[in-house]
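This section describes the prediction task in plain terms. A model, or a person checking by hand, is given the sequence of a single protein chain and must write out its three-dimensional structure as a string of C-alpha cells. No templates, partner chains or ligands are provided. The sample shown here is typical of the held-out split.
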Amino acid sequence: MRNGDSGGFFGFGGTFVSYCEKIFDTLMLGFLWIIGCLPLVTAGVSTAALYYAIVKTVKNNNGYAAHEFFRSYKQNLKPGIILGVIFAVLFYVLQLNVGIFMAKSEGYVGLFFIVLYSALTVFLILMMCYAFPALSRYDMGVGWILKISIYMTVRYLLTTVALAVTLLCFGALIWRIPLLFFFAPGPLVFVMSEFLERVLKKHEPKEE
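The expected answer:
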C-alpha cells in the first residue's frame, strides 16, 4: 500500500504524501466507526474494528484501511455485540444506583455509595479501553476478554492512567467544540494505541 519511499519529501511515495495518506485514513476510519455504531448495539464491534484497522494500516502500513475495518467488523460481529451488551447493562445498573442514592439517601452512607458506584463506572469505562482492542487482536471468548481487560486495567496502572487522561482531554475538546466528535474517533484511537500496543504485545501468543 505505502511501500514507496522514493521521490523526495514532496514526491509521489515521499514522506509528505505518506503522512497525508495516514491522516486521511485515520479520519476516514473514524467516520466508518460512527457509521458502524449507528445500530448502537454494534458500537463495541465498530470500536474493535477501528482499533484493528488503525494499528494494522495506519501504524504498520499493512493493507487497506476500509478493507481491514470491514474485515474485522465482520469477524468480531457476534462476540462484539455480546461484549457491548454486557458493558451497556453494567453501565446502566451502575448509573441507576448512583441516581437512586442521589435521590433517596442522605448523609455519609449515601455519599459513600455514590462515590463507590461512580468509581466503578470509571473502572468499567477503562476496562472497555482494553476489552475491545483485545477483542480485535486475540482469539478469545467473551469471558476471557472480560477477565484480561480487568487484569490489564489493574496490572498496567500507568497505562490505565494515560488512557484516562487521553479520554479526558479528547472529551474536553469535544465538549467545547461538539463538531469535533465527527473527526475525533480516529485520532483518539491512534493516540490510545500508542499506550495499548505496549500492553497487548506482551500478551500475544509466542510463535514457535
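For orientation: The chain has a mean pLDDT of 91.
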